[in-house]
Amino acid sequence: MAQVNALGLQTRDLACARGGKTLFAGLNLSVVPGQSLHLQGDNGSGKTSLLRLLCGLSEPAAGELLWDGAPMALVRETYLREMLYLGHALALKEGLSALENLHFAAALMDQAWSIDAATAALRQMGLREREHLPLQVLSQGQKRRVALARLCLSPARLWLLDEPFVALDSAACTVLQGLMQAHVAQGGMVVFTSHQAVELSGGDNRSLRLGAP
Amino acid sequence: MNALWSLLRRDVLLALRRPSEVLTVVFFFVVVAALFPLAVGPERTTLRMLAPGVLWVGALLASLLALNRLFEADHRDGTLEQMLLSGTPLTLLVVAKIAAHWVLCGLPLVLLVPLLGVLFDLSGDALGVLALSLLIGTPVLSCLGAIGAALTLGLRGGGVLLALLVLPLFVPVLVFGAGAVEALAAGLGSGAHLSVLMALLLLSGLFSPWACAQALRIALE
Q: Does some domain include residue A33?
């Protein structure tokens, strides 16, 4: 997965404004392969806004994004293939089973699909025997586990995770931490927000506090 | 292509698992069409004259019923964000959404028309033209309605606004759709009307997915 000379994701003088108020400005950050970045900050300090800027859902008020050193406008299609964004909303359908949801997500992202891999991913997330149940009978935490199973199946180099630990029990938190560590160890990149203290071992793990005076 | 097909398949599958929404649309259409002959009386010439207009207005209002939920569920659960980030152009994904809406809320109406036309004592020829005009016309309604649905996404009371936005756009479709059968009855032939409908379909099919995609981008910012 690691590429020679891959620069990963960089921002230059990034600024974000919501409702006429500047959340942050002049933000220069860099996430290179084999690195994770933990975004911290109080409520409303712009963590989710920054993630939405990074994944391209919204446009920055100023500044630019670079992917492997090239301006985002030029490499957006490549970037979309190499990036996975999981937001607050899980993008799952209540009427479909866990496997059907994963299948649709893979098809939407134009990824290869193997039912064995998907079943294994769901088992890894602790959802054995629940692969075929409609999502409406699963709990909030179990739904989040289904969404996180996409991490195991995606070939993306960069993961952008918005509060991935919310609603998870301690066992699932451990599994998710393991996934993130393994991804970083293989030369992947993770940017995530969390209010919890997250201790990732191995790799280059940094944190950034937004809205600090 | 794979993404489009699975989006269409997923929407149809979801609707079949929870069929109340589609059934509401179909039931509404059937009730309107069945009540008219009872209210107007059994005079055959009156019924024949009323039939195209009544069935077209019924189909138009029925297809409006499910429109405001076209993008709403995907917007609420975050699927729309993933669609925007999927790498497949949003315009193409919108085509799949519109196609799914037509298969679920337009096609059943077209298939029911030959049955309901009998209530109005329509001749075989007139039934055929009416069904054909609906077959060409209902996808136009889905295309135009989708623009309204995308523009009013996330608004409170969006349903009323949606109706206000799209009803004026629906008028030409209604005029030429119902007009096709009347032209046939007048002995003029329905070719011209059907050609205009076809032109409307091509125009809206080309323009509407792009307009929807722009509106959805704005809604998600």
A: yes
Beta carbons of A56 and B41 less than 8 angstroms apart: no
Q: In the structure encoding, which two tokens stand for residue B79, read together?
A: 């699927």
Distance (Å, whole) CA B100 – CA A182: 40
Please judge whether A108 and B82 are an interchain contact, meaning their C-beta atoms are less than 8 angstroms apart: yes
What whole-number distance in Å separates Cα of residue A198 and Cα of residue A36?
Answer: 11
Note whether B105 and B22 are within 8 A (CB): yes
B14 vs A: CB within 8 A: yes
Length reported for chain B? 221
| Radius of gyration for chain B, computed over Cα atoms and rounded to the nearest angstrom | 18
In a domain, A2, yes or no: no
In sequence order, what are the beta bridge partners of A86?
Answer: A161
Structure token pair of residue B46 = 């009156």
For the whole model, what pTM was predicted?
0.90
Range of the structural domain that residue A113 is part of: 9-209
Structural domain spans, chain B: 2-220
C-beta of residue A167 within 8 angstroms of C-beta of residue A146 = no
How many other C-beta atoms can be found within 10 angstroms of the C-beta atom of residue A142?
A: 20
Q: Quick one: which H or E segment has residue A91? A: none
What tens digit of pLDDT does each residue of A105-120 get? 999 988 888 889 999 9
Domain total for chain A? 1
- Per residue in B154-202, pLDDT (tens digit) is 888 778 889 999 999 999 999 999 999 888 888 888 889 999 999 999 9
DSSP B88: S
In a domain, A199, yes or no: yes
What is the distance in angstroms between the Cα of A56 and the nearest Cα belonging to chain B?
A: 8
Angle at B6 between CA B4 and CA B7, to 5 degrees: 65
Among candidates A57, A80, A96 on the partner chain, residue whose Cβ is nearest the Cβ of B14:
A96
Interface test with A, best of B2, B18, B71, B85 (most A CBs within 10 A): B85
Tell me the pairing of strands A83-86 and A158-162.
parallel
Asked whether residue A99 is assigned to any structural domain, the reply reads yes
**Is the interface score ipTM higher than 0.90?**
no
Q: What is the CATH number of the domain that holds A102?
A: 3.40.50.300
